[in-house]
Amino acid sequence: MNASPLLSIIAQTSDEQQLATEVDDKARRREASKTSTSSGHNARAHLQSARPFPVQCCGEKQTNIMKWARRQTQLNFNPSWPLSLQYGRENRDLAMISLDFSFNILTRDLSYYLENQVKVGLFGSGVGLSLVLGFSAAYTCYYLISVAKKPQLISGGKKFYQFLREQCPVVSETYYPTFWCWESRIQTLLRPFVTAKPGVVYRNELIKAADGGQISLDWFDNDDSLSHPDPTTRPTVLLLPGLTGTSRESYILHMVQQSRDLGYRCVVFNNRGVSGETLLTPRTYCAANTEDLENVIEHIQRTNEAAPIMAAGVSMGGMMLANYLGRKGRETCLKGVVVFSAGWDVFECTASLERPLDRFLFNSYLTSCLQASVHRHRPVLEKCYDIDHVMKARTIREFDERFTSIMFGYPTNDDYYHDASPVHRLKSVQVPMLCLNAADDVFSPSHAIPVEAVKQNPNLALLITCHGGHIGFLEGLWPRQSTYMDRVFKQFAKAVIEQGSRLQDLS
């Protein structure tokens, strides 16, 4: 195998220096000086005129790099030069300078080649990286212009409107949904998984209903409250979960945490048969029937007569609260109510959930949850209902037709849906009620949000965000902690408890 030019120069230097003694020292040095200058210029001219490495297709890159590197490092000495000049000390120095110059060119051009031709990480070439950066900039602009917006606040009375603007600054702030999951369905699906579940220790209580059934209440007494150390006057917040929800849902736990920070006591109203208690009678629950809720509110008032009470309902829990207020008018002890993601028109809500994608993502799952609850209490329920027929339902509408509407004595399912829709009772609400809905909520479509009905009642206020989904309202880069919905709850609860006297007469 041939040695490199540099190694050959070093090996033969001593032999050739002996031949150089025959030449006159002065003539040899003079000739060497002239030749060195000339050869140095020739070598540098050759290196500077070297063609840059050509751009090749991927399959030829490695081969062409090696050929180009060998070609660039050749010295190209003139064979007519005397041996003493070719291999003497001066030419050895010249070779080192030339090789160093060639190496600098090789490094520079190879770096340029790698920077512009070799793939960059996961994003392909430099052009691909530019596309990614451009897309990110465009996405950010779209998010800031079209996604992040201030919510719309609507109220039937100027007094309630001003109260919310002053006491609840969150209603005037821009809502920034989580940057990477602002779409409605994604927010709805991810909320139970990405948000943390605060540790809460409940005290369970079972109370009797008029029909012989039992209702499960989960209390968080907050005995460590510093702002309200007296349990007899400690404010109480009543929480109502959604369709198949319990006190263990993440959104309920977050509201308990917010109430704890305020120094308040919480009690969660679990619908019959959903939280593990035994179903004593062949009756469960529905959005239209508020008898159990009335029983619970009266029980809370008797237990802590001096403590102010407010309530918050989520999804079906909010529908139940709105129907309760519409029936009771002023005959209630509640100081204020906040409702999240309520379905105002059950016909529209059901139709929205029966669209193909939403039926696949939500309707079928909720139907199976309802059927699972029925199956757990089958020994009690099968005495009055055709459970096999109920278990064959594929949608919420079919479940209600075969079970819910029959249980509560409605002639048809349409009669039940009409009675369960809170939109028909909003005009009768006489207690301050704030309602939060997202315009992209597939459970409560935007065209069914009762804007005009709210404008006709000074006790009502409606807060509509462009995004948030159904009980989503995620915000922040990684939404593990509180959501926009939690902030609305905390500020409104504090305003009602501490400034409730300003809301006594909103008409």
Automatic annotation (TrEMBL):
Its main location: membrane. GO terms for biological process: medium-chain fatty acid biosynthetic process; medium-chain fatty acid catabolic process; phosphatidylcholine metabolic process. It comes from the Eukaryota. Pfam families: Abhydrolase_1. It is a single-pass type II membrane protein. GO terms for molecular function: acetylesterase activity; monoacylglycerol lipase activity; phospholipase A1 activity; phospholipase A2 activity. Residues 235-476 form the AB hydrolase-1 domain. Residues 23-33 have a biased composition (Basic and acidic residues). It is found in: Membrane. Its EC number is 3.1.1.32, 3.1.1.4. Keywords: Hydrolase, Lipid metabolism, Membrane, Phospholipid metabolism, Serine esterase, Signal-anchor, Transmembrane, Transmembrane helix. Phospholipase that may play a role in phospholipids remodeling. May selectively cleave myristate (C14)-containing phosphatidylcholines through its predominant phospholipase 1 activity, cleaving preferentially acyl groups in sn1 position. In parallel, may have a minor phospholipase 2 activity acting on acyl groups in position sn2. In addition to (C14)-containing phosphatidylcholines, may also act on other medium-chain-containing and oxidatively truncated phospholipids. Belongs to the AB hydrolase superfamily. AB hydrolase 4 family. This is Phospholipase ABHD3.
